[in-house]
Design brief:
Elements (H helix, E strand, L loop, with lengths): L37 E2 L13 H9 L11 H11 L6 E4 L1 H13 L5 E6 L4 H9 L2 E6 L8 H6 L5 E7 L11 H10 L5 E5 L14 H4 L6 E6 L12 E4 L2 H10 L7 H11 L2 H25 L10 E5 L4 H11 L1 E2 L1 E3 L3 E5 L3 H18 L1
Parallel strand pairs: 1-10, 3-4, 3-5, 5-6, 6-7
Antiparallel strand pairs: 2-8, 7-8, 9-12, 11-12
The structure holds pyridoxal-5'-phosphate (PLP).
C-alpha cells in the first residue's frame, strides 16, 4: 500500500514544518590545489591548537572504545572555577549551536515566537523553524546594529525566546551595557533572552557588558559561549550555556546523550589552561582586525566597527562579484548575496591579500 507524505510523494510522512527550511550553508573551503590559498569564510581561528591541547587529545584517543563522560564533569568543574559560576548553572553541548538548539527545545514549539535581529547568525531561522516556532526577524538599524527598541516592541504573549547576538554575526557590531539593560528591563520575566557571545573574547569596547555579569541577577537570561572561535576548537564541537538552575537543568536534560566527545572535553580543558597563549593570539588577531579596518577605511570603504574576528562590507548587488574577485586573489570570503560580505580576520598574509583585492575592486568597479 502506498501512502502520500507531506510533499505529495510516497514514503514516510515528514513534518510539514521542514518544507522550505534552508540547509545550513558552511563557509566555502579554500581550494586544495587551485589558486585559492586562504579560507576567510567561516570565522575560524587561523592558529593551530593551543599548547597542551594535542597531547591531551592524543591521550584521550586511546579510549575511543568507551563512551565519553556524559556529564562532562571535568570540563564543567574547570568552567565553573574559571568563570566563578556554580556547576548547576552550566550545560555543555555539541558546539554552541547544539546548545542553541536545546534552548529552543526547552522553550519553544508550534504557536510560539522567537525573536532575533536580522541579518544575524544564519542558524537562528533554521533551528527556530525546526522547533516548529515562528521566527520574528527584526531588521538591524541603518548602522547594522541590533534595534533593541524594535525588538522589545516585537514581543507578544507568544514570545518564548529572544536571541541577542553580541557581537553580531556577520556585522561585528555590538550592543552596549546601558541599552542592553534597558532592553532586558522591558522583557517579561517568562521570556528567555539568550546572549550569544560566540565572539566574546575579541571584544575591546569597555562598554560592552559581559553576559556572565548580566545573567546573575536575571533568571530569564542565559549566555552562550563556544570553544570554536578564540579557543580554536571549531572541529571538535564543544560549546556551553550559562543560565539559572531551571534553564541549565532543562538544557542538560535535552542534550544529545554523549554528544560532546572525550576528545573535545579534554581539548577544552587544556585550552582553558593555556590562558596566556590564548590571550596572546586573540591580541594579535585584534591588532590585525584594526589594521584591516583601517586599511579598508583608508581605501574609502564604509566598514562598521567590529568587535569580533571578522569585518562586514555592505556591498548590495556587488556582493557576489566582490567575493569572486577575492577568490581570484587567493582568499575565500563569505558572501550574503544582495547584502554584503563577511571576511574573517586570518593570517597576516591572508589579510594582506584581502586588502589588496578590496583595493583593486574599488579601483575597477567603484
Ligand atoms: C553568533 C554565533 N553563535 C554560535 C555559533 C556556533 O558556533 P559553534 O557551534 O561552533 O560553537 C556561531 C558560529 O559561527 C556564531 O557565529
Amino acid at each position: 500500500m502506498s501512502e502520500t507524505n507531506g510533499t505529495g510523494g510516497t514514503g514516510p510522512r515528514l513534518r510539514a514544518v521542514l518544507d522550505g527550511i534552508p540547509t545550513y550553508k558552511p563557509g566555502k573551503p579554500a581550494a586544495a590545489d587551485g589558486p585559492v590559498a586562504y579560507k576567510l569564510s567561516s570565522n575560524e581561528n587561523p592558529y593551530p591548537p593551543l599548547p597542551g591541547v594535542m597531547e591531551r587529545a592524543v591521550a584521550a584517543a586511546g579510549s575511543f572504545n568507551r563512551y565519553p563522560d556524559m556529564a562532562c564533569s571535568g570540563l564543567m568543574s574547570e568552567l565553573a572555577e574559571r568563570f566563578g559560576i556554580p556547576m548547576t548553572h552550566l550545560a555543555t553541548g555539541t558546539g554552541s549551536v547544539g546548545v542553541a538548539q536545546s534552548l529552543l527545545q526547552i522553550t519553544s514549539g508550534p504557536g510560539d515566537e522567537v525573536i532575533y535581529a536580522w541579518r544575524s547568525f544564519e542558524a537562528y531561522p533554521i533551528i527556530t523553524r525546526i522547533s516548529g516556532a515562528t521566527p520574528v526577524q527584526v531588521p538591524l538599524t541603518e548602522g547594522d546594529v541590533h534595534d533593541l527598541d524594535a525588538m522589545a516592541g516585537a514581543i507578544t504573549d507568544r514570545t518564548r525566546l529572544i536571541f541577542v547576538c553580541n557581537p553580531n554575526n556577520p556585522t561585528g557590531t555590538v550592543v552596549r551595557r546601558a541599552e542592553l539593560e534597558r532592553f532586558l528591563d522591558r522583557v517579561p520575566s517568562d521570556v528567555l533572552v539568550v546572549l550569544d557571545e560566540a565572539y566574546r573574547e575579541f571584544i575591546r569596547d569597555p562598554e560592552v557588558p559581559d553576559g556572565l555579569e548580566i545573567y546573575r541577577d536575571r533568571p530569564n537570561v542565559a549566555v552562550l559561549r563556544t570553544f570554536s572561535k578564540a579557543y580554536g576548537l571549531a572541529g571538535l564541537r564543544v560549546g556551553f550555556a550559562v543560565g539559572h538552575e531551571p534553564v541549565a537543568a532543562a538544557l542538560r536534560k535535552t542534550a544529545v546523550p554523549f554528544g560532546v566527545s572525550q576528545l573535545a572535553q579534554e581539548a577544552a580543558v587544556a585550552s582553558l589552561r593555556a590562558e596566556d597563549e590564548l590571550w596572546g593570539r586573540v591580541g594579535t588577531l585584534v591588532c590585525e582586525r584594526t589594521r584591516v579596518h583601517e586599511g579598508l577605511v583608508g581605501q574609502g570603504w564604509t566598514v562598521p566597527d567590529s568587535q569580533a574576528n571578522f569585518v562586514w562590507l555592505r556591498l548590495g548587488e556587488r556582493t557576489v562579484d566582490f567575493a569572486a574577485a577575492c577568490e581570484r586573489a587567493g582568499v575565500v570570503v563569505r558572501p550574503f548575496p544582495g547584502e554584503g560580505v563577511r571576511v574573517t580576520i586570518g593570517e597576516t598574509e591572508a589579510n594582506d591579500l584581502f586588502l589588496r583585492a578590496a583595493e583593486n575592486f574599488r579601483k575597477e568597479h567603484l
